[in-house]
């Protein structure tokens, strides 16, 4: 009973990190400042939707690489059960993240069962570490991957290691590899570690028996065979399927080959850019490239029809570049290693794009600074010191296994390229050993007598040297991550720092945190300015331009917007940059406003020239134009002709179609797309006519689905595009107040197209965004009957 009470008290301590974990995730639920899909989300969602629709892994046939299967299957299962909504995926991942906190708690207890505060504090840090909470609401594999890794560690670090534990570890590491292929190289390392561990533990257990050596060898061989067999049987079925599907040997996926070439090209060119590597891969797919592939290091095969051959071509080119400049590759890898430890404030997974506009709420900005960056910078050096102390004092196998896991990841990641999310699988162990260090240092370098320690921890002559080296490494990593030395960096006045990470001038986390918080009032004023325009409060909007602090874009185009919506079109044009000054992405909003004013003046050719500029077309600013513009009255929208900006919402980039006569421009529109006909109502019943194309649906379904037409929240008609051609469809409109706007909403089932369309977004502002295609429109018109 006396032994049970401390265990009960320690278990009760888990409630604190559990509650903190739940609170943080509830506060973040649907409050992540998204501005679209990020990183690999679009790829995972597209492939998973095809899986859910029964099309297997065929989506990857036309993509730049293939992926490990487990996470797409995880997402596909949710899509199959719950439809296209993704919140159930986030709920499942939130549950997994809570399980991860429990796993860290259990691992910490196994590391030092009598060090009472280690488990709850390590679990608390895991629970409140912001990236672990953010990633539950992303379509990225990290949460699932970390769960599998922690479970595998738990199986390997059990006190009494039996064959069933070896089998469990093999299966779990196999599943982790089928989630992210980076773990493949760690499997043999675990096998070696397991061989050495069982040699020691079995020797101790069997030392009093007869035939000790034979028993040890038998037990060791059994455990090793169980682990290897379990891992191979977990991975091998996928490898066989994969190789058959992709036309040759593909063990897990082909993304490693692409990343190898990306790292090699970065080293060879001396700059980080994926444009040339992307074009190389697109050429292998036989798809359009932004630039000709040009000269390559190894012979370029051009189009090849199987991913296995593409993998070979990517690998061959990457190795050729590395051999050509090995020193450059080594230097690049060292730089990537430093980048891995430093903070990249604008990394896509942090959702911080546009921080200088004030888009981010101060609470989110502070959470990033305190619960992500500060926690990381403090825990990193402490973890190294804590691991060193545990290595000399603890008999737990978790210590050596963690060291191998860290070393493996730090060796592999910089060889390709390093981004901040690559260090996430390392962080649970970082928190465990960081807390170990704090608890040890709190007792002036000595763990209390009750803590687990080896009998000769303080007598071995190399212990002091080992701890000293690890302390030096901890200090070095602190300087790399925290960068207090960045304040001393020589730089030109106003220039950005080249070394800042956490501390230092811009772009340090501290500096950007201040910028983001200071910009918030300007963003809120921008919203009030927009609301004033939308409600026709032009005097209020004009007053804000002179009396309120506004964002750069609002100050630049706000006067023209006010003048235009007052009907002063000529004056509005003079308040904008001239046509010759509007040349690239930074001028996007000015170009849209200028095109709208020219259109309202009846200068259609000039308006078309402005709105069809490449940087405007690629950005597809329909959402912004719908909210900010008051376009001229019209009864006809030429959808896909660039002059439709401001009249439509929820549609994708226009595309020409020369397969029909005469040729036409179309836009694919998604579910809940909207059409706006300003001032088109006459007070009498009218007719809505839409020209729609249903042919492309045949690539995904037997026939196009019906499209429901909604006006003022009420369904007024249904039409079904023709799967064999382009047709016109007439929907009666009820009478609306004369001179009022007619706003139509189209509801339709959607499908995700093949990867070629996803690839076509490469190099554009809309890159990585999944397109859910519903109805393909040429034009829409409101007519009197």
Structural write-up:
The chain has 785 residues and is an alpha+beta fold. Among the domains are: 4-253, no CATH class; 255-324, no CATH class; 636-785, Sandwich (Jelly Rolls), CATH 2.60.120.260. The chain has 28 helices and ten strands. Strands 1, 2, 3, 4, 5, 6, 7, 8, 9 and 10 form a ten-stranded antiparallel β-sheet that branches. Strand 6 (707-711) and strand 7 (714-719) form a beta hairpin. Helix 24 packs antiparallel against helix 25. The protein is globular, with a radius of gyration of 30 Å.
Brief digest:
The protein is α+β, with helices and mostly antiparallel strands. The protein has helices at 4-13, 15-28, 41-52, 70-82, 87-111, 118-128, 130-134, 142-156, 163-177, 186-205, 212-245, 255-269, 275-285, 307-324, 326-341, 362-393, 397-416, 427-442, 463-482, 509-534, 538-547, 552-565, 569-574, 588-600, 604-611, 614-619, 622-628, 755-759; strands spanning 636-638, 648-651, 655-657, 664-677, 686-693, 707-711, 714-719, 726-733, 742-747, 775-783. Strands 1, 2, 3, 4, 5, 6, 7, 8, 9 and 10 form a ten-stranded antiparallel beta sheet that branches.
Helix content: 40-55%
* Strand proportion: 5-15%
What's the pLDDT, averaged over the residues?
Answer: 90
Compute the separation of the termini in Å: 89 Å
Largest sheet: 10 strands, antiparallel
Query: What would you call the structural class?
Result: alpha+beta
Low-confidence region ranges: 202-210, 445-459
Total strands: 10
Mass-distribution shape: globular
Per DSSP, the total helix count is 28
Q: Taking Cα atoms only, what radius of gyration do you get, to the nearest Å? A: 30 Å
